[in-house]
Amino acid sequence: MKVHAAALVLTLCASAMAFSPSSLSSSSVVVVPTTSSTRWSSTRLAMSTLDRPMSSSTPPARVSPDAGHVPDWEGRRNPTSPDEFMNSDPTSPNVGETMWECPLTRWDAEGINVREAQDMARDVPHCPLEIRASFEDNALGAEYFVRNRERLRDDLVKHGAIWFRGFDLMKTVRGNRLMHESLGLQPCLDPLHSSGLRKFASERDALYEEVNKPSLRQHYIGLHNESTAKRTAAYAAFVCFQRATEGGGRFLVADGAAILAELDPAVLERLYDRRVRISVSNLDIPPALPSLIKEGIRSLVDVAVAPKFDMDLEMMYEMDGKPGRLQAVETAESPINRHPVTGLPVWFNNAHNHARKLRDRRPCGVPEVGMTEVFYADTMDPLDLEDCLEIKRASEKHITALSMEPGDVLLVDNYRALHGRDVFQGDRFHAVTWFTWDRNEEWRGDERRIVEKNAFNKAINKMMDWLPKDFVSDQS
């Protein structure tokens, strides 16, 4: 599951304050100065530095990870005002009221021979496919996508993602919607819509705001599929309306097949055999509380809070070794999955984003209650540093750090490609629409959005707007 953990933070903070105000002391989070710029260079910390043993009093160095491919910026003009891109077409239907629910995750992970799977995944074409608009393409507007629909849909499955560059159509909310409607894609809710994890940028156009909030601009979002063990969007269209005004904010994409082929076979086999479980949030309860009270808190959170996230969660105490810590942990899942359409084995796992040993070593903008962890499912021990570093190496070798500019769209096959975002400065406005299965009704299901469930989403997002800018968790 993606972290963007502010929603989990606020929800469990509210629960924590209800149960024990002392458990959320002022030392939980601090405001610290942030760097003035983000540079992509070959001078990142060496792997040996990341692997250096740390004393309990010495926090690891924080470095924004590198990428295997870093395209140049092209310098398209940023809009001077959101009015230039936020206007919707009032004559178009309000699709926000009738969106599909995010479909259930398609799991096909049994009986995989790891080395054979790596051989199958080894010769995939580069992800993403880059398509630059010509003068003639831009003159066609939405008709370009109508005429090329089948080819583009085939290319999406073949490459895992398509980067549309230089298209004028998608510089506005109205044009962006015309693009995906011309491709025949059907919008669905975010996998965790009811949790308040994202708010709409334009609800009637099924367009969610991406993670642009000032409070999270110094938070590096690692690679992840838009997925939980329970729900996964089939596709996504990430659109840039305004690039970061003061630098940074590259969008990250990497091919799950290429990562699978790259990983050390011994590490991959170990992870596949043992499976993984992901803790998505922490609630620190005073360790001295009687067991009966702690169990009552666990049961109350399990019944009253966890269901809001539409996930299969188990509330577990002290899995990461911290006394009194109550963690919401997903069910066991395989780090390898077969693609539902092609059957291609892919790395389908969010450890690059969620592993604590990696997040502690890069810019992080969430308080402790929102910090995540990845465990071996058989023993519930956190992933070893060596396994985390191999995931880091293989993942970042295949990251393309996109220089997205106004009008650019990254169309993603969410089962094949993982995505993320680097830190940024200033103001940035990216948005995303999720899509369900449009060519297989059985996979899509018949669940439509229940609008009445939206109250929790709106309440959480109002609270998120109160967060201070650039606050990070205390790692000292």
UniProtKB/TrEMBL annotation:
Pfam families: TauD. The keyword Signal applies. Residues 1-18 form the signal peptide. InterPro entries: AlphaKG_dependent_hydroxylases (IPR050411), TauD-like_sf (IPR042098), TauD/TfdA-like (IPR003819). GO terms for molecular function: oxidoreductase activity. Keywords: Oxidoreductase, Signal. Residues 148-429 form the TauD/TfdA-like domain. Residues 50-97 are annotated as: Disordered. This is TauD/TfdA-like domain-containing protein. The lineage of its organism: Eukaryota, Sar, Stramenopiles, Ochrophyta, Bacillariophyta.
